[in-house]
Q: What sequence folds into this?
């Protein structure tokens, strides 16, 4: 009987190792699953990134369809904690460089470096997003990287020509869906502000109006559930639904009181 104890102990050890490896594999599987699930950049559609370093703000538009990158260097005198709201742009994610300086000719390196930082540098994006964007940046030739500077005087006006030209989403522009925006809140100018954001990314806003107060925002579309609808629905976090053709516009965005809780434009 004493001779069987080492064999029994070995079997128990093997079972224990198997159980540990099994649960470790399950854990890794779920981590990879949620990493892919929570990923935002799909290498097919435009992606807008805000990079904030020690001195100023840089806004970057990645355009996979035409393999270009547009960088807007904002004058350091412009101070804002919400560049998306300030410039009326849908910002998909942010990178905080803290004491590091942003270099527009090393975008890929910056993204990889930020992914391995122990401090919180990535916001609303996963490590997978950072790697995908870095790989895309490395495929873009120097001639397809456009860098512009936005002065303080221009940033404080409503003339966002640089933003409209640099951050236009080619798929939204190509779909040419007409859009009506209805402000159903007591906040004056809310509809016009959203109209500016939609126009900045290539949307065709044909009407901006008001109506009685509504608690919930929604997007109503006719025809197909287009990329324009999906893009605006995802960014604004508004549910979309198919409706009847009772407007001249293809898409109606109703701004309700719920959007006041997290203003993005």
A:
């Amino acid at each position: 009987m004493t001779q069987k104890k080492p064999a029994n102990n070995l079997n128990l050890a093997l079972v224990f190792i198997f159980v540990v490896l099994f649960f470790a594999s399950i854990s890794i599987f779920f981590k990879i699953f949620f990493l892919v699930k929570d990923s935002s950049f799909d290498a097919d559609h435009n992606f807008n990134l805000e990079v904030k370093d020690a001195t100023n703000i840089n806004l970057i538009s990645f355009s996979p369809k035409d393999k270009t990158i547009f960088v807007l260097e904002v004058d350091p005198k412009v101070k804002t904690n919400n560049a998306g709201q300030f410039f009326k742009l849908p910002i998909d994610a942010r990178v905080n460089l803290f004491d590091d300086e942003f270099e527009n000719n090393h975008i890929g390196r910056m993204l990889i470096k930020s992914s391995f930082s122990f401090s919180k540098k990535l916001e609303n994006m996963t490590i997978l997003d950072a790697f995908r964007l870095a790989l895309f940046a490395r495929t873009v030739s120097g001639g397809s990287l456009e860098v512009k500077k936005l002065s303080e005087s221009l940033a404080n006006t409503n003339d966002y020509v640089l933003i409209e030209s640099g951050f236009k989403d080619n798929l939204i522009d190509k779909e040419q869906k007409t859009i009506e925006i209805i402000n159903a809140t007591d906040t004056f100018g809310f509809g016009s502000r959203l109209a500016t954001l939609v126009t900045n990314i290539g949307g065709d806003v044909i009407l901006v109006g008001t109506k009685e107060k509504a608690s919930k925002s929604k997007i109503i579309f006719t025809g197909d559930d287009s990329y324009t609808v999906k893009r605006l629905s995802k960014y604004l976090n508004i549910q979309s639904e198919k409706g009847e053709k009772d407007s001249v516009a293809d898409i109606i965005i109703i701004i309700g009181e719920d959007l006041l809780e997290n203003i993005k434009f």
Q: What stands out?
A: Residues 170-261 form a domain with the Alpha-Beta Plaits fold (CATH 3.30.70.2390).
